[in-house]
């Protein structure tokens, strides 16, 4: 078919290790002082010798296992020769002929499977900072600065088959891969810090179905930008061809403001990197038991966690997904869920209801759902108010036991949803438990119709027009009257009881 998009990804991720790939300089992406974490080895001084970082090798293998790759039993490093000021040695140690991992696959959230061509291990380059030529700048301009803190940091490159056809799938793949890297501890994969870098290759098929000329898009600083650049580029290439033009092989960048790709440099002559085996490093050999040992350290992966959460707690796909992406919040939910049974029993005992009887499964199920709903919808505002990051809940004052207790109170209608929100806010503020707050603030919901009778009478008396309208069949007026009664009861009236009372009185 004509103009079918063909897209493949290359994703670099900086590995999370204590030291660099071939020396003991610290690997610290947060180091702000330039050229602080450097030594003669990563600066490429003559006479120095590299030593392989075992932790980095293990992390690449772990990544390969997470993506169902086959792991090479024998592999080696090679030199990729090119000159650039951010590359002190004049070559990058990389892998070309025999990557550590090959032939994997990753299923993305919409069920599509993307084939992984390879994952190999290499070292990162330094960072250049180009000082413009602003004559007013205090340091002048027209020169570049180089920071070698990143030079020699272990870098893992994943290459996919050209299996994508649109930006959305590129987004889903990149997000899933990023999450896996975090789960297995291979990389922090933070794109803003440059710890993960996505490059997109894209072409359209020719009339005979063969692949067209591909364009590479680099310098994408977010997954959203990667997805948007793909969709933009599909349209650009199609229009170009339809107007008699030709796609040229080139590297393009992404302009975030204009939401457009732009030409950076043409790819006319292929680079000759003169790869050859790195003579200063031994080849690597793994026994299958070595790989098995690494496999035992593979934790639960995001896809497995989503399934477990859905099965165990009966929550929605979206909630299970949220508790997987926001891992700490998911752990919090697990803790809450483990407390619900006990909290429900405590409630029975306190109210003299059923004593120590087991909680019925359907009640527990409702409590699981209720808790998930509250956490997903109500917590973001609490986090924002208290300046708490979803990735670090350590400062959050609502402990899971207290939250479970609150959910039981809501379930038993001891508290209206408005009341519950007020209690949550107070819990986040003070760290007190729900019962204390309800008592102090007098928030418990009134469901006793005797107590609400006079409230309803007053509302009916004060609102003759809506009362008439309701009697004539206008349902919206009932809603209005319930609202007025809620206000009259200072938010404590049980809305269902109020509705019943109003209906009874007006239908008489
Ligand atoms: P190169 O030699 O130009 O680096 P590779 O064959 O190594 O090309 O592939 C690099 C990336 O480009 C891979 O992700 C691959 O899936 C993708 N790719 C290969 N051919 C095409 C194509 N015709 N259109 C889009 N992407 C492609
Ligand atoms: Mg390539």
UniProtKB/TrEMBL annotation:
SMART domains: GatB_Yqey. InterPro entries: Asn/Gln-tRNA_amidoTrfase_suB/E (IPR017959), Asn/Gln-tRNA_Trfase_suB/E_cat (IPR006075), Asn/Gln_amidotransferase (IPR018027), Asn/Gln_tRNA_amidoTrase-B-like (IPR003789), GatB (IPR004413), GatB_Yqey_C_2 (IPR023168), Gln-tRNA_amidoTrfase_suB_CS (IPR017958), Gln_synth/guanido_kin_cat_dom (IPR014746). Residues 357-506 form the Asn/Gln amidotransferase domain. GO terms for molecular function: asparaginyl-tRNA synthase (glutamine-hydrolyzing) activity; ATP binding; glutaminyl-tRNA synthase (glutamine-hydrolyzing) activity. Coiled coil: none annotated. Its EC number is 6.3.5.-. It catalyses: L-aspartyl-tRNA(Asn) + L-glutamine + ATP + H2O = L-asparaginyl-tRNA(Asn) + L-glutamate + ADP + phosphate + 2 H(+); L-glutamyl-tRNA(Gln) + L-glutamine + ATP + H2O = L-glutaminyl-tRNA(Gln) + L-glutamate + ADP + phosphate + H(+). GO terms for biological process: glutaminyl-tRNAGln biosynthesis via transamidation; translation. It comes from the Bacteria. Keywords: ATP-binding, Ligase, Nucleotide-binding, Protein biosynthesis. HAMAP family: GatB (MF_00121). PANTHER family: GLUTAMYL-TRNA GLN AMIDOTRANSFERASE SUBUNIT B MITOCHONDRIAL AND PROKARYOTIC PET112-RELATED, GLUTAMYL-TRNA(GLN) AMIDOTRANSFERASE SUBUNIT B, MITOCHONDRIAL. NCBIfam families: gatB (TIGR00133), PRK05477.1-2 (NF004012). Allows the formation of correctly charged Asn-tRNA(Asn) or Gln-tRNA(Gln) through the transamidation of misacylated Asp-tRNA(Asn) or Glu-tRNA(Gln) in organisms which lack either or both of asparaginyl-tRNA or glutaminyl-tRNA synthetases. The reaction takes place in the presence of glutamine and ATP through an activated phospho-Asp-tRNA(Asn) or phospho-Glu-tRNA(Gln). Belongs to the GatB/GatE family. GatB subfamily. Heterotrimer of A, B and C subunits. This is Aspartyl/glutamyl-tRNA(Asn/Gln) amidotransferase subunit B.
